[in-house]
């Protein structure tokens, strides 16, 4: 019967998650909930005609309300299984409820608008609807950890069997791993991996509550994390191609020339990891045309005149720094794009890329005290790496770090030999989010937000700051701020690259250098996925400060020890 029906199989799986705790509930003469502890039991969503032990919501003039914590950030919705809704001994077939999702407890308690800027942007997270008796009602598709449910139907008693989160995800096995003598770093690696994992939905998104879209620049930390955790996965080329096919040249991806440059860099890094020449050949026409389009904006003296310059939001007010960073980003993209043209055997395109790069390298723009700019200038070998670290990146610790470009700041510091400073930055900055109850990393974070801040998994006590509703900037003020943003996952990829020491030397992981840098760690071990299987390494610091390394790698890979 389905033969003539157009069908697309959902690549995701569904799982039901029980609440881990009840954060708050209404409890007064007009509004109460009885037997709510049953919501924490492992109950299914199937109901029969006769109620068993029921959780009873009573609206006797005011909404009966409860705030549930599912223990971890999830993508999906909620299922409410109901036996009966009764008013004055009369059965109601439907009852009106309000369902609010929140990435923080306070967001789930909020109303749309106001100073805290709660929204329904990109996904409905606050809605009033009728739900049916004798059924399992599914509501919502968003990013959340907390759900508040209000029975709005007046003079009504509702008998509920279960309230479960419906968790939509890819069901993937983690191939890569990272464990060390520092539990905090281990947790940060896992949190970055999980942040990206949640964003691997139909395509690779940047956020599961807001920004449920493919942003090419934002993808680079995500694809770097995917390489370290999952290896090759179809979602990356599918997402790259989706935007490519909808960005006809001379348009720019996501309207930013910088994001078109990031597309080239991702293509390069993906090819180095996976060595899929057939896929690279599919990019040839667009890639070469895009490189030449970038070249059109490079003047003879090396200045770059591309429109709409953008790195990330926190750097936006420092336009001199933004222009310096864009200059470095174009240099990196054209250098890597030239390498791809070399792999494709396109000698003329390689020659043009060398010309574009030579023009750009005539200019050595000032970083303007922007850590974003200094990081890219160092990585592009335009600014001395040690100077960039000493004069800009290491100044004031984690102040001036951003969740997106923090990845490149860490890379530049590592390339300058400052592994210890990088580890301290990761612990302070990304660890700061964990201190506030994060289970995924956020769209933005400022180390100053820690002062007198309440955790996101509690209702803000008097005299403390609601970090989610109070802070944010640009397009992510208040509760609009995403608390699960893939561009913040950089430490996961960084720890695998610089601490485990996995450096890809030849395309397709045919040759890999192992160069562990432990900083103050006593030991580290982990796995890194390749097209031939996992590389396993263990590094143990010896009494004399040297590091003893054990490597187990597929026979197809040539291992170069540092």
Automatic annotation (TrEMBL):
GO terms for biological process: carbohydrate metabolic process. Pfam families: Bac_rhamnosid6H, Bac_rhamnosid_C. Signal peptide: none annotated. Residues 175-319 form the Alpha-L-rhamnosidase six-hairpin glycosidase domain. Residues 501-556 form the Alpha-L-rhamnosidase C-terminal domain. Gene3D superfamilies: 1.50.10.10, Maltose phosphorylase, domain 3. This is Alpha-L-rhamnosidase-like protein. It comes from Mesobacillus foraminis.
């Amino acid at each position: 019967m389905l033969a003539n029906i157009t069908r697309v199989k959902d690549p995701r799986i569904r799982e039901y998650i029980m609440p881990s705790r009840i954060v708050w509930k209404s409890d007064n003469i007009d509004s109460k909930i009885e037997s709510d502890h049953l919501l924490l039991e492992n109950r299914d969503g199937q109901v029969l005609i006769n109620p068993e032990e029921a959780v009873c919501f009573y609206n006797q003039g005011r909404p009966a309300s409860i705030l549930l914590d599912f223990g971890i950030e999830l993508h999906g919705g909620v299922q409410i299984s109901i036996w009966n809704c009764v008013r004055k001994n009369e059965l109601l077939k439907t009852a009106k409820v309000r369902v609010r999702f929140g990435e923080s407890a306070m967001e789930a308690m909020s109303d749309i608008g106001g100073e805290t800027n709660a929204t329904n942007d990109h996904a409905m997270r606050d809605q009033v609807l009728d739900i049916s008796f004798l059924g399992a009602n599914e509501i919502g598709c968003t990013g959340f950890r907390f759900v508040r449910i209000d029975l709005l139907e007046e003079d009504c008693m509702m008998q509920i069997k279960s309230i479960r989160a419906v968790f939509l995800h890819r069901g993937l096995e983690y191939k890569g791993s990272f464990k060390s003598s520092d539990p905090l770093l281990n947790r940060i690696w896992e949190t970055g991996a999980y942040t990206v994992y949640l964003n691997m939905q139909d395509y690779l998104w940047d956020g599961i509550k807001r920004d449920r879209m493919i942003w090419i620049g934002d993808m680079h930390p995500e694809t770097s994390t995917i390489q370290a955790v999952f290896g090759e996965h179809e979602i990356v080329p599918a997402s790259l191609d989706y935007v490519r096919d909808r960005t006809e040249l001379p348009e720019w991806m996501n309207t930013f020339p910088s994001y078109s440059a990031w597309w080239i860099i991702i293509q390069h890094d993906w090819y180095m990891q996976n060595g899929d020449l057939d896929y690279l050949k599919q990019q040839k026409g667009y890639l070469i045309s895009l490189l030449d389009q970038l070249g059109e904006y490079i003047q003879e003296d090396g200045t770059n005149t591309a429109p709409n310059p953008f790195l990330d939001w926190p750097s936006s007010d420092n336009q001199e720094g933004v222009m310096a960073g864009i200059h470095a980003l174009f240099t990196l993209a054209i250098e890597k794009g030239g390498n791809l043209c070399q792999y494709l055997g396109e000698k003329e395109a390689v020659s043009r890329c060398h010309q574009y790069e030579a023009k750009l390298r005539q200019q050595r723009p000032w970083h303007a005290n922007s850590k974003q700019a200094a990081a890219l200038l160092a990585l592009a070998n335009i600014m001395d790496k040690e100077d960039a670290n000493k004069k800009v990146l290491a100044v004031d610790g984690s102040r001036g770090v951003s969740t997106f470009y923090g990845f490149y700041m860490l890379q530049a510091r590592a390339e300058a030999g400052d592994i210890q400073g990088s580890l301290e930055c990761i612990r302070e900055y990304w660890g700061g989010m964990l201190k506030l109850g994060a289970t995924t990393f956020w769209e933005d974070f400022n180390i100053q937000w820690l002062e007198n801040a309440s955790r996101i998994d509690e209702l803000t006590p008097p005299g403390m700051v609601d970090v989610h509703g109070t802070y944010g900037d640009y397009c992510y003020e208040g509760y609009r701020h995403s608390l699960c943003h893939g561009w913040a996952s950089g430490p996961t990829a960084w720890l695998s690259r610089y601490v485990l020491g996995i450096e890809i030397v030849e395309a397709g992981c045919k040759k890999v250098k192992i160069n562990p840098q432990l900083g103050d760690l006593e030991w580290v071990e982990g796995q890194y996925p390749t097209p031939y299987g996992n590389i396993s390494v263990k590094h143990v610091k010896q009494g004399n400060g040297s590091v003893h390394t054990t490597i187990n790698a597929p026979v197809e890979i040539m291992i170069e020890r540092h």
